[in-house]
Design brief:
- The chain has helices spanning 21-28, 42-49, 68-72, 119-136, 149-157, 171-186, 198-201; strands at residues 6-11, 16-18, 35-39, 82-90, 93-101, 107-117, 144-146, 193-195.
- The chain is an alpha/beta fold.
- The strands form two sheets. It has a five-stranded mixed beta sheet, with helices on one face. Strands 2-1-3 form a three-stranded antiparallel beta sheet, sandwiched between helices.
- A hairpin with a 4-residue loop joins β1 (6-11) and β2.
- The protein is globular and about 60 Å long.
- The two termini are 25 Å apart.
């Protein structure tokens, strides 16, 4: 059984919240520069309709948001931290990663794009890059946020456990992975590696906004 969806049209023949895709489609089909999006519940859709399309563009709105009580269980993120993320066009595909200051999203490093990579590899490299950068700056008390459980587990194991096949096209990426693994095995660090709770806090500040 399909879940009920609610559709917001910001730019179309008629604007507003619609409770069926058929009616929504009538407003946007053939309409130049139509702006619309589906939501998991009516409250979220009505709230969105009062805002701007740009505030929701690229965000996953198909899953119901947590209630205020549910969000409270996660607390709030430590803004005195850095956040890392990766983006990959395809699997494998062109991959890049970056790190930002959590409190203002100021970019502090960015690498790529690399050919024939994966998102998990990017998340792993981003974490190692962030850890090494903070260690070099003698800021080992600053937490690092990631939204990738897989990459966090690879850091604990000091190994990028990817199944990706390497050849001449992504040799540069393999070199980076080997360098990162070597660094982890030869260095210690104290920075807390924390999970970014997307459901409660929204997209991680380092997100590339391409979802």
């Amino acid at each position: 059984m399909s879940k009920k969806r609610f559709y917001v049209v910001w730019s179309g023949r008629k604007k507003g919240v619609f409770t069926s895709w058929k009616v929504c489609k009538q407003q946007i089909d053939g309409f130049e520069n139509a702006q619309y999006k589906s939501f998991a519940n009516l409250d979220e859709a009505e709230k969105a309709s009062k805002g701007k399309y740009e505030d929701y563009k690229g965000k996953n709105t198909k899953k119901p948001a947590l209630s205020t009580k549910e969000k409270a269980k996660f607390g709030k993120p430590n803004l005195e931290s850095i956040s890392v993320d990766a983006a990959c066009a395809g699997n494998p595909g062109k991959m890049e990663y970056r790190g930002v200051l959590t409190h203002n999203k100021k970019e502090i490093f960015r690498k790529g794009p690399f050919d024939k990579g994966t998102n998990n590899i990017g998340e792993f490299l981003a974490l190692v890059h962030g850890i090494a950068l903070l260690k070099a700056k003698k800021k080992e008390d600053i937490p690092i946020y990631s939204d990738s459980k897989i990459a966090m587990s690879w850091i604990r194991q000091k190994k990028c456990k990817t199944n990706l096949q390497f050849d001449a096209s992504n040799k540069e990426l393999l070199t980076l992975i080997e360098r990162a693994e070597k660094w982890l095995k030869e260095n210690t660090f104290k920075n807390p590696i924390l999970k970014w709770e997307t459901k409660a806090w929204g997209e991680i500040p380092a997100d590339f906004g391409r979802k």
